[in-house]
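Write out the 3D structure for:
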Amino acid sequence: MPKTPAVSMNPLTNRDTAFTLEERAELGLTGRLPAAVETLDQQAVRVYAQVCGYETDLQKYVYLDQLHDRNEVLFYRVLVDHLTELLPVVYDPTVGEAIKKWSGDYRRSRAVYLSIDHPQDVRASFETLDLGPDDVDLIVVSDAQEILGIGDWGVNGTDISVGKLAVYTAAAGINPGRVIAVNLDIGTDNEQLLNDPLYLGNRHARSTGERYDDFIALYLRTASELYPKALLHFEDFGPSNARRILVDNADKYRIFNDDMQGTGAIVMAAVMSGLKVTGKSFAEQRLVIFGAGTAGTGIADQVHAAMVRAGLSEGEATDRVWLIDRNGLVTDAMEGLPDYQQAYARKAGDVADWQRTAGGIDLVTVIENVKPTILVGTSTAPNAFTRAVVEAMAQGVERPIILPLSNPTERIEAMPSDVIPWSGGKALVGTGIPVGTVTYEGTTVTIGQANNALLYPGLGLGTIVSGAKHVTDGMLLAAAEAVAGQVDPSFPGASLLPDVDHLRASSATVAVAVAKAAAADGVATVTPSNLVQAVQNAMWQPVYPDTIER
């Protein structure tokens, strides 16, 4: 069996046809590559042409995933050059399709797999990476219980962690050689997977209770001990677990939950832009969340905190937040109310005379009684924001902020092309998916996408550069303000959020703001004399280095 030199097998060092003739001779690659010696530019042109030759986004995803496994510099060069076009291919929404097929289409592992059935292997699994305490900046972990809008996908959800790291690198220059993707295989309650002979994960129901909590605690202890400088990013955990893990550990570890904190902060950025149009403060807002899961309650937490910062008491701010789930308005009379909803449950007596439908208080009734200034959809219930809902919002306030954030497209609560005319052009709209402009009565309205990629890469970079011991509320606020500061919503039809065309520059701006906030909050352990330059220096670039690492 012919041997292949290790340097060409490592995606971090492989250059494929860009190895020079001298390098090929030195590395034992003579005769193992075509005669042409290409530049990275030439390779990138070919790869992009190949990507464009595929008909579906899933085919493009598979091709780019294979490139990612072979040559990381080339992969990221193409991704950065065509970020707006390819971001939805390498991550949401295409990654959801790939996850459904992951076990059957298994190609190669880029992750560390930690099984709840073998807790004794957690440390050994990390140690196989041969990385020291100063070698890791970021770990993204998921137990895949709530993948995007598609639910529980067990070990198939591994690509969520891999894809999230790819966005961190493409958007903010997090060094791909200093990151780890982790899947926590807790089991799965997805019967389709359990009955699939090709499924690669643990074949039992999800572990819960003390066993689950002990495993999470073991992961946190081990990861933070082995890699004390790493940001521990949690992704797509179930709502109850996500909130409990964050609340119990935020002061102990450098931990961040994008579904709760990242989504909340990007919505905060959209609301900040909207308030520049309405001229109101957070203390004057009334928030209705339709879809009271991880993302919805995370948004509620962020807006609640902003209300308190604007002068309201904790109780006054809570009284301005209404949650609606599948059973209607969340009240304290509901049995088995999840802990993450309890803080915002309305007193049943306060709404006793409100109209009920099928035993619950529906969205239209809540809007008619509350007259909310902000309506956020995180329900994955398609078309839930009906004409009656939008008209009720527009009748209640002059410029309602309406944010149907669910994705993918088939799960969005309403399309802006409906919301804007239904509101008579009054609604300030942002979505969770990319959509085109909407023209109404001569005004072309640009719809900003509340894409977490506008925020979490820069937040992560700022955390790394500052060496922040924790991710504070001040850092999240600074990130939201930095995103909102990149648009001018004052002219008719303006977007509430920036687009992703210049995501690297945007992430750098967010990172500087986050690092400053870390210092102000007293959690920074590094204080560069020139913070802007320090952020630029920390951003990895997709170029072949002058020397080849062995």
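The radius of gyration is 24 Å.
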